């Protein structure tokens, strides 16, 4: 990968700047940049790149792959790598102004019309009894170890919800033919950098064409996760109201979306939330008091904290 991007041996970082994935800070053409993995195959990476350029052309702030003398993004072995400029700025610190600006950016992204044949499409999951069992035992194992006092209260809600996901949650959302948009499906504070008070989306690499309501639900639940400057909890109701109001300046939600919002939230809690709670144990994130407090809030959250109206 470094050879492809012509990074001299002495200029190659030994380590990722990120614990969870390879993200290499480098210099190229005199500029600070990062090289990281993006969604493959190359046609999908190219579609994400076109989407990012289209966003920027509409004044929606996001990174775009650097234009270099070599291919970028580039398929190298069985992975696709991309070089983005390093975005100088501040991390999120939880202020009302920052929350407003983030909701505004998400709304602008969802409102941008950029259809593309090669954009990855959201795929509905298909869980059998064994994978439900795996989620339930995963929650039991992780909560039993790190938050045993919550085991019963969390499991008594999550187990029946996980068991009925394929019959009572997924079909309602899937069969409603909800409005779709190209979304990052990872719109969280740690994927934004605030430059001159406007956030820039710096991690667009999970982009897909998906029901926009699911992307909004992901932000409602996970916006504060993994960012050191965030408070150690989900949005409060009033923070959510601020985020949502800014989002709605750009997106008019349909009646179907409004009716299905509680189901969409439950969908994301069961899919992304369960995964987040279990996967965090793989990285010892439950030992970090800041992350632990967030994870406990996530596991016990009353979804009525995030109303649409
Ligand atoms: N272009 C960039 N400018 C500034 N910081 C960046 C940039 N890309 C990544 N980072 C930093 O590295 C972290 C991990 O990068 P990210 O692209 O989010 O990786 P991943 O796709 O694995 O989540 C970010 O949270 C951010 O702190
Ligand atoms: Mg990221």
UniProtKB/TrEMBL annotation:
Coiled coil: none
Top-rank taxon, per record: Bacteria
InterPro entries in the cross-refs: Aminoglycoside_PTrfase, Kinase-like_dom_sf
Entry-linked SUPFAM superfamilies: Protein kinase-like (PK-like)
Domain Aminoglycoside phosphotransferase stretches: 28-233
Region forming the signal peptide: none
Protein name as catalogued: Phosphotransferase
Organism: Microtetraspora fusca
Biological classification of the source: Bacteria, Bacillati, Actinomycetota, Actinomycetes, Streptosporangiales
